[in-house]
Amino acid sequence: MRYCLTILLILEIATGLSQNKPETAFGSVKSRTLDSLEAELKTVSQEKRFKVLLSLFREYLTLNQDKAQQYIGEALVQAKIDNDSLEMVIAYSGTAYLLKSEGRLEAAIELFTDALEISKRNYFKNQIKYMLNNLATSYAVSSAYDKALFYHFESLKLRERDGDAIGISVTLNNIGSIYDLLQDYKNALSFYQRSYETKIKNNVEYDLELTLLNIAMVHNKLNEFKEAENKLNEIKSKCESKVCPTNILISTSNAFGEILLNQKKYAEAQEYFIGSLRLINQNPSTIYSSWEGKGEHLSNTLYWLGFVQLSQNNFKAAISYLMTSLRTAEEFGIQDTMMKSYLLVSEAFASLNNFKLAYEYQNKYVQLNSELLSGKVLSRITELRTSFDQRENLSMIAA
After folding, report:
1. Is residue 187 within 8 Å of residue 173, measured between CB atoms?
2. Per-residue pLDDT tens digits for 111-155
3. Which DSSP string corresponds to 281-324?
4. For residues 205 and 231, what is the distance between their CA atoms, to the nearest angstrom?
5. How distant, in Å, are the alpha carbons of 13, 108, 248, 301 from that of 286?
6. In this structure, are residues 89 and 50 in contact, taking their beta carbons and an 8 Å threshold?
7. Which secondary structure element, helix H or strand E, spans residue 371, and what is its range?
């Protein structure tokens, strides 16, 4: 499955300009809060205009992305009029957030980088931390794993210095996710478990289910199916006693499917993947979490449905699912799903004796794989890990 990253979005918890969000669970009904804010915008003074525009952006974020884009764009204009550096950082961040949810990663990274530079010049300590995390997760989605790890480790240093338990747990989870993608499951499990232990020790509920999900999937990859199922059942138990986000429900359903698939229980696995697809289709306009949009979940679920069909020698059905997954992954720039799908599509065409297309998709896989896991990138990742180990050892000595 696609690993699970968490973003601490600056607009949610990093700024004193934030407003309480209405308790609409991915709803489409315009709230009274929106009516009030839009009325206020018509009469508000210039000094308070940015605050109202930001609140409108946040209210529309899960309801109407076009309106959200409109208001964050107006907020950026207002920030420049106000000549307020903090407002510009926030507006850049909101714009970049939307760009990333649309799969426009290069543009998002450029704006997050601008926001980081402004934050550093003005010593905005909290904003520096959040921009580091946003850059790390953006690079992770674009599969630039060395850069992702660099920014995550920089973020972790600041959060550990400040004793920020939530931020530490999130960053540890995200570092584990990168190692997970690199198939370094020992380091992945180590960072995931440290994230979980940090949450439990500090009574942090934030994304606890996501960390459990990541731990479960590493156990699955190590063929430790019982341990994996225990973690997923723990998530199910928690979601029975509270309303869990849709992305957690989809990811947990897919995780059960993957565990069953690894045990060659194809019919049972397919039921879970179809259930995930049903959840996605029931929530067509929702941003399920801070960085995973419909495209991310859809391409991943379709990939696994194709995998199930290929495993049962249903080659045409497999190609149908995988090509749909590929179209979505290519649209949103989800490169790891693209790479996996290229390989399976190649295998399916070869099984149908269509060697021309098999060769074409094999070449696409080889090219993308070499780009994502080049020797230079792997060398940089090893360097980052070594640096982190040295820093951690020095901290222990100093203590």
Report:
1. no
2. 999 999 999 999 999 899 989 989 998 898 788 899 999 999 999
3. HH-TT---SSS--HHHHHHHHHHHHHHHHHHTT-HHHHHHHHHH
4. 16
5. 20, 19, 13, 16
6. no
7. helix 355-372
